[in-house]
Specification:
Oligomer: single chain
Shape: globular
Strand order of the largest sheet: 3-2-1-4-5-6
Largest sheet: 6 strands, mixed
């Protein structure tokens, strides 16, 4: 069914999100794209990080519509998933990389939305999935994105040296800039959490 719906016969990258509101009601939505060449955690995690950062700045709770609109919007040279995806990526043999995202309302003290991430990766043609990476919270997700981007930059520079390819050097530079930006978002989330802890400590002392 999936191949006929998407008209694809290639490995897929899938970003699927379950968004809960203050009442606990959960809505699910998913997007897909070909996994090659940009369907990897390094290139797709920045979209999630920027979404969490945007919610913090705009003081908004997450919603399936906001997440889908943000993710579908093409804002740079790296394509994002844009094909509506109705299947569960965890049970789809075509999905070689799945970002399984759980989003919840913003924390009233820190301002950051609740976020849990599982990244499931498998080798093409193999089953079950070969690697699962989990991160909890905006700070940890941003740090993970920076880590993946830094590793991608190193790999690209190695290939650029071997093949004398200027395009790979430019792509490595993009990965480096994205890693630095993800680091800044993680630092902002850390600072917000530290301020809350400090305020709580002061409140205990003054009681």
């Amino acid at each position: 069914m999936l191949r006929s719906e998407l008209r694809l016969s290639v490995p897929l990258f899938v970003a699927q999100a379950a968004v809960s509101n203050h009442t606990g009601l959960i809505a699910r939505t998913g997007l897909a794209m070909p996994a090659v060449p940009f369907g990897s955690p390094a290139w797709q995690l920045p979209a999630l990080v920027s979404y969490l950062h945007r919610l913090r700045q705009d003081e908004q709770d997450p919603s399936p519509e906001l997440w889908r609109t943000h993710t579908e919007r093409q804002t740079g040279p790296v394509p994002r998933p844009h094909i509506r995806y109705q299947t569960d990526g965890l049970h789809d043999p075509d999905a070689v990389c799945v970002l399984d995202i759980q989003l919840g309302p913003r924390d009233e003290e820190t301002g950051w939305p609740a976020a849990d991430l599982a990244v499931i990766e498998q080798e093409e043609g193999s089953c079950p999935f070969g690697r699962v990476t989990r991160r909890h919270g905006a700070e940890a997700i941003a740090a993970y994105a920076a880590e993946e981007l830094s590793a991608e930059r190193a790999a690209l520079m190695d290939r650029a040296r071997r093949h004398q390819d200027a395009a790979l050097v430019r792509l490595a530079g993009l990965a480096q800039r994205a890693a630095e930006w993800a680091d800044k978002v993680g630092a902002a989330a850390h600072a917000d959490a530290a301020h809350v802890q400090a305020d709580r400590a002061r409140a205990r002392i003054t009681r």
